[in-house]
Each structure stands twice: as structure tokens, then as C-alpha cells.
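Q: Predict the bound structure with magnesium ion.
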Amino acid sequence: MRDWLMAFARRYQRDGILAVICALLYTVTLQAPPALSGLFVNRVLRGHDIHMLWPIILAGILVAAIAGVFGFGESYLSARMGQGVLNQMWEALYTHFTDLPYSYYDEVQTGQLISRLISDINWVRMFFMNFFSMGTQVAFTIIFATALIFAYDWKLGLILVVLLPLLYLVVHLFDRKVRPAWREVRAQFAVMTTHLNENIAGVRVVKAFGQDERENRRFDASLDALFDRNIDATRLWSTFYPLFDLTGGVFIVVVFLYGGWQTIHGQLSIGALVAISGYVLLLVQPLRQIGMIINTMAQAVAAGQRLYELAEVNSDLPLPANPVRPARVEGTLTFDHVSLTYPSTGQTVLHDIDFHVGSGRSVAMAGPTGAGKTSVVALIPRLYDASQGRVLIDGIDVREWDPVYLRRHIGLVLQETFLFSASVHDNIAFGRPDATREQVMRAAELAQAAEFIEGMPYGYEQLIGERGIGLSGGQRQRIAIARALLVDPAIVILDDATASVDLETEAAIQLGMKNLLKGRTAIVVAHRLSSLKAADEILVIDEGHVVQRGSHDRLVEHAGLYRDVYDIQYRDQEQVRASSAS
Amino acid sequence: MINRVDQEEEAVERPFDARMSWRLALYVRPYPRLLWLSGITVLLGTGALLAIPYMLDLAIQRYVLPKNYAGLVMLVVVMSAVYAVRYFAYRTQTFVASKLGQEILRDLRSELFHHIQKLNFSFFDRIPGGKIITRVVGDVQNLQQLLSQGIVNTLANVVLLIGIIIAMLVLKWDLALASFIIIPIMFFLSTNFRRRMVEKWRVVRRRNSIVNATWAESLNGARVVIAYGREDFDRRHFMDLAWGYFRSFMDAERLSSMFTPFVNFASTIGIGIVFWYGTVLYLHHAVTLGLLVAFISYLAMFWQPISQLGQFYNQVLQAMASAERVFEYLDEEPQVVDRADAKPLELTGDVTFDHVVFQYQPNRPVLRDISFHVNAGETIALVGSTGAGKSSILSILPRFYDVVSGRILLDGVDLRDITLRSIRRQVALVLQETFIFDGTIRDNIRYGRPEATDTEVEGAARAAQAHHFISELQDGYDTPVRERGSRLSLGQRQLLAFARAILADPRILILDEATASIDTQTELLVQEGLKRLLTGRTAFVAAHRLSTIREADRILVIDQGRLVESGSHAELMAKRGHYYRFLEAQFKLEDSGGWFGHETLAEPVS
Ligand SMILES: Nc1ncnc2c1ncn2[C@@H]1O[C@H](COP(=O)(O)OP(=O)(O)O)[C@@H](O)[C@H]1O
Ligand SMILES: Nc1ncnc2c1ncn2[C@@H]1O[C@H](COP(=O)(O)OP(=O)(O)O)[C@@H](O)[C@H]1O
Ligand SMILES: [Mg+2]
Ligand SMILES: [Mg+2]
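A: Predicted complex:
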């Protein structure tokens, strides 16, 4: 994990090094004031050397100015490094997330991801922002101050140095204990975020069933748990922090016991004693900061581990060594004895599916709920991999294709419409962000969406809410159809694309798309048989098997699932016809 | 794709105001004990800290110079005691402070969450979920630093500062005044500086929030991104936002990084003044050497809290930008709320719409003057083209939104005079868009009535035709279905939502295209199951399929927000009006040959 984290820092190495140098020089300049104070006491006050007064004051101001420059450099540069690391991690993880297989998102809790990417990552940033410069400052302040104390009186210095291992022990103990505590905090934080994310996504159902009280209780419970975890961690560090502070006190006591003795016996000047106690006081702050650094580091490590876990999630859709990107995609599609078992459930939902569609031809699928129609369709853009058999497009196994290239040539209307909170234009142009307004409008017209879009206050610039809130179900589906059309696909997949559209609009959409579908391979799933009866081949799917296949005319002639459904739907129609005749 | 988030982030610009800080500070109120405790420990700890330079003075003047080692040892013993006090005080202070912060954080998050639950649908129509999450998670988190250590540290620093000032004034008031001279000058000089920092940190927060909300939405919509192969474009867009955030951050950081050096520089000048004036006094024998040493130590200590207060001010600025955003949601008034005199009501299921006008946005009425009456136990079908207003009628019935004019009466009582809770308990919906929670199938079915027994759950699932597929799953009713039910087919999710509504045992059942993704045969079975359950209950069904519509006692035909026809199937067919034309579309569909048309009908592939 450390290598992974450090790789991000590498690009900001220069900032990091400069920040450390600044911190170093800043620390050096900080050593000057006590020396100047000592000088002031010895020379000006005791030595009555008035001429030294102004040089000392001016030197002090000069040192402060220099310290200011270095202090600024340190804080600015380390902020830039931290922020830069953050951005790079974001970019890497963003890429990673879009490379992950579709199935990953079936199983993952989105709130977990969100909390890692917007909260955990912040701790890592803080670490990079604070650790190097603060660490340098602390380390060098301790070293310098100790060294200078040595210079004044080496025996006193030695006594202090002997105390340092004790400090190290405290540090070590603290670090070991506080890490797991922070890990727990981070984990519970993610649980809280997950509750929140789901509650917000499902808020309409929550309200519809009047369950807000229960949701409140559930959320409060996760807040309470988070509180407890935080208090556990706090208890630890509030025990340790003051220890570092106390160490400073021990130093002072030692200085006065020993240094006072020395001075009384004339072996140490009074000025030196003043300076030494000044340095020891100088040590107190960095000692206190050691606790803080370790605490931040422990949190960063806990957070970094959680991010690393994400980066470690492997794509179980292996990418081909030489991804195929044919110049022209014809759109022939073959299912070669395909079976599919969803790894998450171990359930085999498709058995030995075998069919072929020529370029520009069409195949339709019908069958009961949960039969496996959507699963068949999902194999085409390689959203999942077949467990047995092969899916071929233009005779090439989809596993050989560059997946992104493949998907760009497929116009997919998913059964479940997901729109983004963006303008209508951007939603339609989703698959081809560079599309012009004319192209977008054309696609909308074909999908019978133009009319209602133009009726909205801002037309194509109208913002539609998350998941397309603000539109009726049918309007949403039409935007999704327009979105699929705009990519100018070789293969069009319509998975129950008009389920929420009324009959009249459906007929209009179909009419509008007829020309468009010509010359493209089409795979259509529908429950209304009249929508698919003209397909070149109809597959009737039940429990993952193709139980019947053939043209509409052939299928209605034979007893079977298709005929049963046809009878029900036909009966309805006949009734309308009958009443309209009467 | 994130435009929405970008644009809406242009939140109201409010100047930094003391009222908001005060409002934030009020969250401390429930914890007087913690506050007292931290106050006392701060006083103790700071007092101990303040005693040290004084003891240094004593040590030098009284013991070291007169060469009294025994006295020095005594003093050191006292000093150790002081340090021990300091240790325990500091320890308690750190813990109490952090605990206080955590308490407030929890209260704030909880309040925010509870408040959001109370907000009505129009809030959620308007604000993308990612943004809400960002505020509850990110912005509240941003307050943590301030609330946990900030308050108490400020307290400690202020106490320390006052203590030092008093000590210095007592030691030598004229020297003290001379060293304070720089403070007002410094304050004056930094005014402009600070104002610019406020602005810059606010921009940072806003940009950060955009990035975070974009993350949330990208992850929630990740599947569509993958299915469309749009990774590159999205990444570029995201990184543009991320670098925009980066730039604004560095912009603010540049100013902030100058602040501390500025304070330090000013402090050095202050010390210089003391050196000079102190020397003058010393030469005139107005001060002793020990006093000057103590004074210099105090001065060194004096600037530390000031510099820390400066840093703290920085923190406050960042936190205020967040607090602003949190309070913005808390100030959002829930519009659909119980009237003061609202009462719970046992419904029979009698529904009246009385000249109802409704709109989502001002001046764009979606329902115009809808009136109808439904007797308890009737099944009503709503028919009309997409966008006609069916779902809108069905969402104002359980009062997800309030009507603009007119009234909706349940059992003759205005909807607004009945408590929301009792309405929602007795009205169940299967929405066009189903939502399945992360949890087991059983949890999901039981959602509306958590106390239902397993037998009842199974009964509901059977009626909804869901039992069959559930029993085929490895763990049956205990199968986890993951977020949004992603392990189920869409039709199965709808069946589950059906079962959930059935189990809630409502007086009024609303089915808004609830069978859209379900196949014809299953739909028939569901209807059979429902028919038995619906006896005595009122039902509203919005659907496009004739098989569903025909069964209704009465059909309401909606067109462009108006009720244009109503009656039974037979009546309306006979009338040959809207309804008739609506159904005629079936033939259009039939004649056009569906997606592929006649021309491709030619030779079927084997
Ligand atoms: N992502 C998934 N993980 C596990 N099981 C799934 C997943 N998606 C669908 N299934 C299961 O596969 C079967 C077929 O589903 P699907 O192909 O969506 O059916 P439909 O014919 O209704 O489109 C169902 O039993 C469903 O529960
Ligand atoms: N939350 C909303 N905010 C704004 N406008 C909406 C919202 N929901 C629906 N609309 C608009 O109201 C009209 C009626 O929609 P709806 O009632 O969903 O129609 P139906 O259910 O009959 O298809 C449509 O024009 C739609 O765009
Ligand atoms: Mg499906
Ligand atoms: Mg609707």
C-alpha cells in the first residue's frame, strides 16, 4: 500500500522536497530568537553593552522576515503537494471505477464508495499536507535545540538525550494502539454514509410508506455507533497527547535541577541558563506535535488502506491483450451455446442459448418475468461474460474486442431508465458528447420526444433532476431511446424500451424508428407481441432456455407459451374490435 | 453531464456573519457539564502553563543568583507538581473537548437527516442526491475540527492571552503596554487580507462540493457510463472540476499561508520594542534582570496564542463556508406538513377530488380543475397518454405535494386536516419506478409493516406472484438483493414492490403502471391475486394495457391535465370519444407491425 500511495506523491516530489527544505530552514531561523535573547541578557543587560541592542533587534526582525518567507514556502508547497496527490488519486480511482466490470456495481454499496472517495481521501491529503513539513519541523527543532543545548553544556545535553528513547517508547505504543481505533472509525463512517445514500435514493418509498421515523432511528443508530468509535479513538489520543506535553515538563525540571546547580557553582553563566531554558521551552511545542503527527498518520493509514482496497478490486472481465477495433462494424451477432451463471448468486440463468442474427436483421425476445431476457441482452456489450460458450460480433468473440469501442457501436436502451441530473441535451448526447444540437433534435424527433421537450420552459437546456425526476416515466424512456439513437449504432438493443409509454406514442415511436432500424441489427425485448411480430426471428425464453423460436406466424400456429400469450392479448384486441364494430 | 450540479452550486452569497457563528455555538447548549468541565480544565491547565515563566523568574532571582540550591530544589518540586496538574488538566481538556465536538457533530447530522426526511418531494425533485449527501457527510465533517478542538482551544488561547496580559501588566505595566502597541496596528493592517480570505475559502468549499457531488452521481450512474463507453469523456470532465477545485484551493492557501508569517513578523517587532524599552528601564534600574527574562518568556508565550488564534480564524473561515451550506438545508421549510389541528383518521376509502389544480412549477399547471368522486371499495383506472398527468394525480392523493387550489377529501375530510402519518399508513403505492432497499427480500416486503409475520410475508408474495421466483433463490426470503435490487430482474423488482404494498394492508392502493415490466401472463395472475385482496378497498390503477384497464369499476380518462371522460369500459367504448381513440392505438400498433414493419416480415430465419 505504501508504494501505491507514494507513487502519487512522486509527481509532486519537487514540491515535497522544497517544502522539506523550507521547513528545515524555517526551523533553523526559529533557533535564532532564544540565542538573541541570551545575547541580549548577557551582553546588553549584564555587560552593559548598549551598542549591541540595535543589532540584536534588527537581527531579530531580519530573522523573522526570513522565517516568514520559508514558513510561507513550506505551507504553500506542502498544501500543493497534498492537493495534487488528492487529485491524482481521484483521477486514478475514477479511471479505475469506469474500468471495473458492470457486475461490480450489482454488489457494491455505493455509499461505501462515496465515503471513501470524498472522506477517506481527505485524510490522505491531510497527511501529505502536514506530515512532511510538520515532521521536518519537529525533527529538526528537536535536533537543533538539543544540539545547541549540547553546545552550551554537553552534560546537560546528554541527560536530555538519554530521555529521548523513553519518548520513542511512548510514540510507538501510541501508534500501535491508535491505528485500529481509527480503522474502526473510518469503517463506521462508511456505514453511516451508506445509510444516508440509500435513504436519499429511496426517499420516495420511505415517505410513501410513512417510514421516516424508522429511517430516523436507523440513521441515529449508525450515528451513535460512529460517535462511540470516535470516542474510543479520542480516549486513546487524549491519554497520549498530554504525555508528550509532560515530557517537555520533565526536561525543564531536569534543566533547573542540574543547570541551576551548575550555575550556582559558577560552571554555567546565567545567560546560558536562560538560553537553555529557552531552548527547552522551544522543545515543548514540537513534542506536543509529535502526538498530533502520529494521530494524523494513523488516520491517514486507516483511510489509505480503504482506498487501496478499492484500487485493488480486480476487474474480473479480463481485457484482451490485443483489443480489436475493426474499422467497420457490420453488426452480425452470434450466440454460440451460451450459458450464464451470475457469480454473485451462483444461479445459472441462461442455458445453452444459441442463435444468429445477420447484419441488419432483427431478433426479438419474449418470455415471462425473470426468464433471462435482460441477461441475454447484457452479454452483447459485454456487461457480463458468458460462463460457457461465446458471444460473437462480426465473427469476433466479444472478449477480443476493445470493450469501450464495442459499446460505442451499440445503442442500448436499458429496461431501467437512468438519466443524469443535467440538461436534456446533455442526456441525449450522453453517448456522443460532441453531438450538435441538430443531431440531438433529430434523435429526439425520432424518439417522439421533441414535442414535449420543446414544451418545457428551457427546451433542450432544461435541467432534469437526478434519474430524470420531473419527467413522466414515458418521457424518460423516450429520452433514453433518443440517447441510444444518437450514437448511430450498428446494433440496437431495446430492452422493453416502451413499457411505460402509451400505445399511441409507442406506435409513433416505432414508426419513427422504422427507417432508422433498417440496415442495423436489432435485438428487441417486449411483452406486447404486436411490437415484435415482424422480427426476423422470435425467441421465446423461459427459465433461461430458448423454448420456442421462429417467425410470428409459425409460433402462433403451434401450442406453447407464445400462443398462450398471444391468445390473451388477442382476446383483448378482439374485444375492442368487437365493441368498435358494434 | 454534471451541469446541474455545477449550476445549482451557485449558492446564495451571504457575508460572514456573527449570527451564524452564534447559531453554531448554540449547539453547545445541551452539554453544560462538558462545557464547565472544559472551562475548569482550561483554567487549570493554562494557569499551570502561566506559572512556569514566573517560576523561572523566581528561580533565577531568588535561588540561582543568591546561590541557594536547597531553595531551588524546593521550587523544582513545586514546578513538578504544577506540571502534574497541567498533565491531568490537559488530558481531561483534550478528551472533553473532543467529546463535545463529537456530540455536536452527531446532533447536527441527526438534525439534518431528520429535517431532510420532513422535506417534501419537491425538494428532492430539485436537489440531486449527491449534493445532499455531500452536505451531510462532507460539510458537517468540515465543522468537526472547529467544533471538537476549536472551541476549547480558542477558550484556552483566550484565557492564556488574558492571563499573560494580566501577568505582564502586574509585572510592569508600562513595559506591557509598550509591547501591546503592535496589536491594533496589526489588526488594522490585516482587515482587507481577512476579507479576501473569507471569499476565497467560500469558493473552495463550493468547488469541493461540486467535485464530491459529481463523485456521488458518477458512482450511482456508473452502469450507464459503462454501457455507453463514455469513460474518457467523463473522466476529463471530472478532472476539469477537480483541477478547478485545486486552483481555487491553492488560491486561498496562498493567502492563508501568508497569514501566519505576517503575525510572526509583527510579533518580532513587538519583542524588539520590549528589548529596547526594557533596556532603557533596566539602565534606569526600573526593572530587574529576572523580571526582564520573565517578560521575554511571557512575550514568547504571548504571540503563540495570537498566532494560533490566527490559524484558528483560518479554520473558522473554512468551517463557516460549510456551516452556511448546512444551515441552508436546515432553513428549508417543509411545505407539506400537518396542520396544527390535523387529526388521525381511520379511512374507509372514499375519495373526492374537488376542482383540483396542481403544478410543480409556478404557472405551469399540470392538473387543471380535476373533480371526481370515488366510493370506498371501487377500483378506478386512470388512462391517458404519457405526460397526461396520471402520476401527478396519484402523487397528490397521498399528499406528496399540495394542491394549488381545490381540495382533496378522504371520507369527506380535507386531506390537509388529516395527519400525514395516518394517510401514509393507510395508502400504499406501487410506483412507476420501484425502489428496492439493500437487505433481504423479506425486509423489503415487510418495509411498510415491519412487525408482519413470516406467514404474512409469504402470503403477500404469493398474491403478488413473487413467491415462485423467491422460492427458487438459494436462500429464499432471506436472500440479500443488494442496492436497488440489482440481483433481480426489473419485473421481479416490481413484483416485490407489489408484495410490499399488499402487505402494508392499505385502505387505498395505488398502482402506477405497476405492471409495466411484467409479462402478460404474470400480470393476469397478479390481477387474479389482487382481485381477492381488493374487496372492500379502494384502488387506483394507472395502466396502458387494456387487460388491466378493463377490469376497473370506472375509468377516468386524462388528457393534458384534464379529466375528459369517465365511465365503465362498455360505456366509454359506446361513447366513441377519447377512450375509444386511445384504445384504437392498439390497431395502429398492430397494423404497423411493431418495431420492424411489414417490409422485413419476409422470410423467417429458422
Ligand atoms: N446482476 C444479477 N446478479 C444475479 N442474478 C441476477 C442478476 N440479474 C438478474 N439476475 C437473475 O437472473 C434471472 C433472469 O433475470 P433477467 O435476465 O433480468 O430476466 P428478464 O427476462 O425479466 O429480463 C432472474 O432470476 C434474476 O433474479
Ligand atoms: N416532479 C416533477 N416536477 C416537474 N414537472 C413534473 C414532475 N413530474 C411530472 N412532471 C410533469 O408533469 C406532467 C405530467 O406528468 P405525469 O403526471 O408523470 O404524467 P403521466 O403519469 O400521465 O405519464 C409532465 O409534463 C411532466 O413533465
Ligand atoms: Mg428484463
Ligand atoms: Mg406516470
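A: Chain A has three domains: 1-153+294-314, 154-267, 333-581.
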